[in-house]
Amino acid sequence: INAEYGVENCPRDVDLYQKEVFGPVFTLQEYTDFASVIQEINRSQYGLQTGIFTKDIKKAFYAFEELEVGGVVIDDVPSVRVDSQPYGGVKDSGCGREGVRYAIQDMTEPKVLVLKNPNVL
Hints:
- It is a single chain.
- By secondary structure, the chain is an alpha/beta fold.
- Helix content is about 25%, strand content about 15%.
- It is built from 4 helices and 6 strands, in the order βαβαββαββα.
- The strands form 3 sheets. A two-stranded parallel sheet has the order 1-2. A two-stranded antiparallel sheet has the order 3-6.
- Strand 1 (about 5-10), helix 1 (about 15-20) and strand 2 form a beta-alpha-beta unit.
- Helix 2 runs parallel beside helix 3 (about 55-65).
């Protein structure tokens, strides 16, 4: 992480803390209770992806289970992805997913054929 793009103890009432930022910036908040941090993140109206830096596997799985986001990245930035994985957000961070499977579904038009009495044909 490049420290020149970080804001430590960012005030909770500024856009950087409140809005979804698409750029090389991060906020760093000190905490004492991990569960309360997860609750604070979930209060956001956004939920694209999040990056959690921890050496505690229990915290990693807790974050994955409890966070209301489209994806949880452990020990890296939230923009990490590969094309084959589902990528997308919840809440005001959009709907649907990107990725090969989802692109194929989006470009496919389902069509149904019903044969009431196939023996008549």
